[in-house]
C-alpha cells in the first residue's frame, strides 16, 4: 500500500532543501561591494526640462569626479553597486540605470551612457513614499552583497501623492535598509521636511542644495559621505561660486538612535 503521507513529507522536504540550496548558491554568487547605493531621483512636474538636465548631468559628473572615484577606491573592497530610479507619482517609478558595479572611470562612463539613453519617463505628481516602497524591493536578488545598503532620495518638493513618506521610510528600515539620506533642492522648510520624513538609519543625513545649479556640488559631497561612511560634518554651510552665481548649500547630519 502506497504511503501518500510519507511521499508528501518527502516531497516537501526535497523542495525546502532545494529552495535553501538555491538561496545559498545565489548568495554565494553575489559580488561583494562596499556599498549598495540606490539613487531615487525626483522627476515630477515641478522639475522642468532644464532642471532635469542639471540633475542628470550632476550625477554623471559627480561619479566621474576625482573625489568620488577616490572614495570608491579607498573602500575595503574598492567598488560599490549603484542603481538609479526615476520617480514621480504613486505608480510612476522607472529604473533608469539598473544595478551595476562602479569601481573605475570606465564604469562611470558606462553609467553615463546608460543614463543618457534612458530618457525622461514621467512628469507628474510627487510621491517620495511610493518611490521608497518601490526601491526596497529592488535590493533583493540584485546580484551584489554590500556591507551597507543605502537609499539616496533627491527632490524639489514635499509629498502630494502616494504612500506616506515617513511610513515608507520606517518600513524600509525594518526591511533591512541601513541608511536613507535626503538631498532636497530648495529652501530650509523643504530641508526640515526631508529630515522629518525621509532621513532614517544610523549616521543618516540630509544635504540641502539651494538650487538645481548647486546640485552637482551637493550630490558629489553626498556621494563621498555615503561611499566612505563618514557622516557629514557640522557646521554645515558652504558657499558655491560659479558662472557669477552664488548658491548656498546647507548640509547637516542627524544621527538616529
UniProtKB/TrEMBL annotation:
TM regions (residue ranges): none
Positions in coiled-coil regions: none
UniProt keyword terms in alphabetical order: Signal
Ranges for domain Ice-binding protein C-terminal: 231-252
Signal peptide range: 1-30
Keyword 4Fe-4S on entry: no
Gene3D superfamilies xref list: von Willebrand factor, type A domain (3.40.50.410)
Protein known as: DUF1194 domain-containing protein
Gene source species: Candidatus Nitronereus thalassa
